[in-house]
Request: fold
Amino acid sequence: MRFLKQHKLTLGLLTLTLLGVYGCVPKPDGEVVVYSALDREFAAPILSAFHRASDNQITPIPKYDVESTKTIGLVNRIIAEADAPVCDVFWNNEILHTVRLQKKGLLQAHDWPVGNSWPPSMQASDNTWCGFAARGRVLLVNTKLLPDEQEWPRTVAELADPRWRDKCAIARPLFGTTATHAAVLDVSMGEQAAEEFFRKVADNATVLSGNKQVALAVASGQVAWGLTDTDDAIIEKDDEMPVAIVFPDQAPGQPGCLRIPNTVAILKNAPHAEAAKRLADYLMNAQTEDRLAMGISSQIPVSKEATVRPHVLPETPVRWMDVDFEAAADRWEQLAPKLEQIFSGETEF
Reply:
């Protein structure tokens, strides 16, 4: 009887030990869960190509979200799942909220396969994310309403110019690239000057729900010009609408055009860590940038090894704004409620 009790105790301890050991074993890496804020039509073909490149051994399982709040929705989901991550790789179509995840300690450092020529602003200081395939923040002009090129706006600052009152448009700066742009301006201009500028813009410009809505309003002649992204602007131009794209702030003494990259990050304690690394390396290469540059969104490569020049770019070189995205993200928590109050109204055409 004593032997039987000891035998049961030994079996129990062995079972607990095995459960402890096997409970710590990572899930098989035959799949990789991707939360993608990049539109399905652009991300899905590249994820399918990765599946083929892995000899069909790794299957990407993407999760997309709704258009208007897709980035913040996915970020909130990652934060909610922090104690038990579901996502392996976060593919963001902007950067501000990727840096927020970095600041919360939810991302894993990775040895990104980029060279020394990669811009510092496109790499995390702790190697937890990397940027690629950017969009420019541009002015889209209706050429019927403004036929004289000499009269076109040339700077983002003109959104606050009374000359353009009710004739220009901006997306409400609480989501996506417009939020990132606002945070960058808050850092570059200084808190007080930036708040004054935002108040003037809210009073002067037509505030719409998103960058696409800005591009559509310009193309249809409801406003003379607006601030939007290159991907939304080029679609209207390719559809032969009466529009022209202006890369702003190119004159001496002006800050240059802001470019906002896609970002890739691996989640800390990702369930499929090895597959996540392989996908991250696959995304962060010149061939992926070439594919995105060739697409209708005409995204702008960061790699000097990229061979495709997106047709959204002008003939003359663009001078890009020097940006510290991590500093901009540090300001977001304080800036967001202020912007919510300033841009509380929103126009519907």
Q: What stands out?
A: Confidence is low (pLDDT under 50) at residues 1-26. The first helix runs from residue 2 to 23. The radius of gyration is 23 Å.
